[in-house]
Description:
CATH topology: Rossmann fold
Radius of gyration: 17 Å
Strand content: 25-35%
Shape: globular
CATH superfamily: Vaccinia Virus protein VP39
Distance between the termini: 21 Å
CATH class: Alpha Beta
Number of strands: 7
Largest sheet: 7 strands, mixed
Number of helices: 4
Amino acid sequence: MAWEMTDGLCVDIGCGRNKVPGCLGIDIADDVGADIVCDITKGIPLPDNSVDELHCSHVLEHLWNCDPALLEMARICKPGASLFFRVPDVHHDSYHCPTHCQPWSRYWWEEHCTLFDVVRVSGEVDAEAFGRIQRYLPEITEEDAMDLFWNVRKELHIWCRGR
């Protein structure tokens, strides 16, 4: 599923040095060239219902309490806004990075995220882990491998709509 672009304001939260083209970059670091420097857990300096498209890639897992950040994202997004999150799958080996504070699973997004309408959750395959499995099960598909072997799920891609 390709990301759907909209005509309105697009923000990239936690943009770092690789801001999504065409988006307003928001980051806590003041040396990455972000358009807005702020701590998203303490507020995002944008008006209510002003954002049509929001990207947030590999940010939430670094927050001890992500609720304030998610509430701010819900506040700034227009009803029907398109949101795209990426987080590491809790079952993948990379999840155990010492800077990761929050576990994320497909179940959490599908059953517990009530701030947005969760449209779709999919996984990205860890190519190296999948290759090891294919040596023993040459006919296995990526989807079946992700269902059977948790460490094959590298990250989750979550598409949401603003309420």
